[in-house]
Each structure stands twice: as structure tokens, then as C-alpha cells.
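okkk here we go again. third time trying to get the magnesium ion bound version out, last two times i messed up the smiles copy paste (missing a bracket lol). double checked this time i swear
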Amino acid sequence: MQQASEGQEHETLAIALENVRFRWPGSPRDTLDIPHFSMSRGERVFVSGPSGCGKSTLLGLIAGILSPTSGQILVQGTDLDELGSAGRDRFRGEHIGFIFQQFNLVPYLSVVENVLIPCHFSPFRRKRAEKQGANLDEVAAMLLQRLDLEKTLWSKPVRTLSIGQQQRVACARALIGLPELIIADEPTSALDADRRVAFLHLLLEECTSQGTALLFVSHDELLAEAFPRMVRMQDINRASVEEG
Amino acid sequence: MGHFTYLWQLACKSAWNRRGTLLLIVLSIALSTTLLLGIEKLRAQVRDNFVQAVSGLDLVIGARGSSLQLVLYAVFHLGSATNNMGYDTAKALAQKPQVAFTIPISLGDTHRDFPVVATNAVFYEKFRYRHGLALRMAEGHAPEALFDVVLGAEVARSLGYQLGSKIVLSHGQSGNAQAEHSANPFTVSGLLAPTGTPVDRSLYISLEAMEAIHLNWQNGLHQDQPLVAENLTKLEPRAITALLVGLKKRSQVFALQREINEGPGEPLTAVLPGVAMNQIWEMVSVGEQALLVISALVTVVGLAGLAAAILAGLGERRRELAVLRSAGASPVDILWLMAMEGLLLVLSGTGLGLVVIYALLALCAPFLAEHYGVFLALTAPSSGEWLLLLAICLSGFCASLLPACKAYRMSLSDGLTVSV
Ligand SMILES: Nc1ncnc2c1ncn2[C@@H]1O[C@H](COP(=O)(O)OP(=O)(O)O)[C@@H](O)[C@H]1O
Ligand SMILES: [Mg+2]
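finally!!
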């Protein structure tokens, strides 16, 4: 995969933001003011910044769950603004996988059922997943195995899994059906320090082997060294909230 | 697997996951359903019991007067006495070619506040109630001796009479000692099985016996005396209170009614008992409406509880819904998920209510029939009851749309990250 550069066509980028401003309703000023940010396809980027600087807000914009006050956001060459809200929902389901800090799993579904959720909401992801193996259950099993989750855990209620195990199930869910982009919002923050690096390597390994772009957000800059590229929020965001 | 099948599965699993709290909602809906359906069933049965106090009778004929008053007095033995009609007239009516049978009745005496009805053998044979049921003797037989009396089930039960008991009738409504026919006591010859009609609360004697105990009254003596043999020939009554008439063909009823009401001779009133009893029921059944309103209110409270409980549970489900959103569910999917949960709760609630009401009916029906003559039929829900059930389900579904819309808006505004 090529390195992205300023003049490149947006079609070859996983994410492109141009002059994006965002203000939460009721807030006196912008949370985000990003003149330019981009990420090429298959790239793995670490975004760092202190708590409250707007990292999660940025991810919400890229996911199309929030709409920018002004500016343009393209994901996989598609202008989110042109999709409409239903279109953005579908687009997100088809092309983006998510991992959050905690509570990623639906408590009343089994491990395998949790992994398969995206395939039920997006026929597109489902078709892709079916090509990964003989059937959906097998694909989920394969992913779980690659993420070091023993078979004995699969049938257990997800509540009884450790946080590290839960995060790996969330990884498998984000990866299933080969989405082009995975968004990870502080996925390691709830893990013990010694488990963080191991988890990170598993995630990076899978993204690399699937050719999936990874946008990884954390306040913990120690993790950055595993990434080819690191971006500081204060470098891309002009609406810095120093006082906060 | 279809999209909706998947959503339905999610809704079921999610609900099962929170079954502890949701059980209470299901129970309250079940209770509402049981109450509403129970009252509706009871209302229908009580109405049926009332309106079907007589059946198979085409006309009630009495002296000219108010038709409702005539039916109230002749069928329910309630209200004041109407004028009498001549027994000759009654015998003439019985000879008409359209007439299949006639049951003469004569009222006026009581025993411990229960009405005494004088009639003849046709009554035991031809009287019908509740869609054609015949009277049945639980013990004994119809009057054979002059001073034999047959008791309705309620009379025998509440006064503790048995076959062979001796009883004394009172003249008129009051039970004062001077007006007692104590010189001519009656012997209980038969006990009728319960019917759930006014028959249960009545005593039956023969027309001749009625005549016999009143001989001295008619002579102006107003005093009771034992019957003497010479009087026995005079025992055919001169007048009766009413004549119950069954026709050979029901289609002739209106023609005969008009003929009697407008014909020459003794001024009479002929009433179609079914019509009159429906009218009476409309008058006495105001309470029934109130009951239905109360149970409807209970249902509304139950459904409000449903909406409130789902709303209260939204907080803890916020994250779960956000996770589904991040895994590709649209806000409309979330709306569906919540609405399906509401539907699930309402369906299981009404289903449970239906089971409970039929279990109760099955348990109580034999007891009520045996002791009170109230017959609760274990029939499938009537179309009115299905409508009630449908109304409960629909309004429950609508009630659950309120939290569903809240969840929809929440999942729009929350974004992907839900702060704890
Ligand atoms: N749902 C929301 N409504 C209003 N303001 C919000 C909301 N979420 C976050 N914010 C505000 O936006 C700013 C950035 O928050 P966030 O993006 O969560 O930061 P980070 O993820 O970097 O910790 C904070 O000042 C926060 O108060
Ligand atoms: Mg955050």
C-alpha cells in the first residue's frame, strides 16, 4: 500500500477531512476545527491527545454519526454529507468496524453471536464474510481463534469473560466481513498495562493481514511506537481546548 | 434469515435477559386481561341468565296494563300485582289452533318472602329456560295431593326444607301471623334442581290448592279454615294472574299478539317476553357499564405501567443499543427493536391472562352452577372478547411506541460513545 501524500486523489484515501468544524449543540465554541486530515487505505494511524480534546467527537464525525457544522468528510472516497442519514447508517455498517474502550458486547448474545452482529445488519458485510469461509459460524470461529480466544470461552455468557477477552471478541466483530476501516476508541484503556501491548499487536496483525485501515485513538502515547504513523490532535485541530 | 426475524430474535433474547423486571409488566397486563375478560364474560353470562329466565315461550298474557310490569310480575315475580284475567278466557285462548301449550299462573301468596306460584302440570313439562333447558326434579315429584308444594332450589337450600317438610303459606306479601294459611299446611313433595332463574326462588303449588286456601277469603271471612269436603267441587279457579303461551309456529306470534291486544272481549295485554326482558335488562344493567369502565381503567393503568417500565429500563440499555448501532443497526432498527419488545410483553401478558381466565372458569364453573345456578360456559372467546383482546394488544403496542421513540432519539443523539 502506497503512502498517502497531499495531492493524491481522494478515492485512494481511507479518510479525508477538509476544513471540518464541529460544535456540540449548546456549546459556546467549536470542539473541532480541522483544516486537513487524511489517511490512505490500509494505513494504520495512531491519534493521541488528552482526555476531552475531541478524539471521540472526531471518530463520531468519521463514522457519520455526527455531522460537521461545516466542511467535507470523505470515507473511502464517499462524501458522507451526500449519503443522507439512512445512507450513512448503511455505509457505516458496510465499511467500518468499531472497538470501544469498554462494554463492547451485547450481554444477552453469545460470543459467536456478538461477532456476527454486523453480518445481520449489513448484507454487504455478510456476503464478504461468507467468502472468508464455509459458513458464518466458521468465519467467526476462525477470527476468534486467530485472536487467541479458546473454544471453551465461546459458549460462555459474555459477562463472565475478562475485559481483555471481551475486547478481543469486539476485535473479531470489527474485523468480520472485511470492512475497509476499523475505528478504535481507546480500546486498551480498560486493560492491564501488560496486556495492552499484546492486544495491540494482535489487532495490528489482523488489520495488516486483512489490509484494513486502522484509526486508533488513545491518550496513552506509549502505545504509539507500534504504529507507522502518529498524529497529535493538537497538531490537526485548531480549536484546541487547552484550559479544559 | 430475514432482517425482521433477526430483530425479533434480538428483542426476545434481550427481554429474556431482563425477565425479572419484565415479568412484573407481563403480570400486570395479564391481570388487566383477566379482569377485563372476566368481567366481560360474567356480564354476558349474567345477561344471558337474566334474559333467558324463560325460553320457548312466545307470549305472556295478562290483564290489560303495562307490558313491562306484566313480565316483571309473571316471570320474575317482582313488583305489584296486576289485575287478574278470567280463567275462562285463558281456557279459550288455549283452544286456539296456533297455540301449542299454555301455562296458567296465579300469584299473590308468599312463604317467608319467597313468592308462591300456583300453576298446573303443564308447567313442569313445558317450562323452558336458558336456550331450551327443561325443569328437572332433584328429588320427589310434582304436586299430586292437593296440599303438595314443590320448592325451588334456593328456597329449599336457604330455609333448609326437605321432602316431607310441612310449611305454611302467607297471604299476600307480608308474613304477619293473622294472614297465614295455617289451617291448611302444605307438604313438600318435590325439590327442583337449580336453574339460575327466578324458579329457584319460588314455591309451586297447584291452582286448586291456591283456590282452596282462599275459599274463606273470598267469602269475606278473611280467616283461615280447614277445607271441608263439600267445598272440593268449587276448586276450579275463576281467575289467574297470567298465561304463558307457547305457539306451534313462532311466525304467528305477531298476528296472535295483535288479535289479543285489540280483540273484543276481556281487555288483555300480550307481550313478547324476550323483547320485554331485553328492555328490562337495559334498565337494570347500568352497573355493568360501570364495571366495564373500571376494568378498562385498570387496563390503562397496566399499559401505562408497561410504558413506564420500558422507559425506566432504557437507561441501562443505552449502551447495548449504542453497541448495536456501531455494529450497523440504524435508528429505525432500534425503534423496531423496542416496539417488538412492547409487542412481546403485551402478547405474553394477554396470553397469560387468557390462560388464567379459562383456568378460573374451569375451576369455578361447577361450583357456581351447583350452588348458585349461575352457568358459566367454557366457550371460546366471543367476537366481542377477541375485539377486547385486540384492543389490549394494540394499545399496549402503542404504549410501547413511546419508549421506542425515546430510544430512537437517544440513539441519534448519543453517537457511538455513551458516557457510563
Ligand atoms: N454528547 C455530547 N454532548 C455535548 N458535548 C459533548 C458530548 N460528547 C462530548 N462532548 C464535549 O466535547 C468535548 C470533546 O469530548 P470527546 O470527543 O469525548 O473527547 P475525548 O474523546 O478526546 O476524551 C468535551 O468537551 C465534551 O464535553
Ligand atoms: Mg473519548
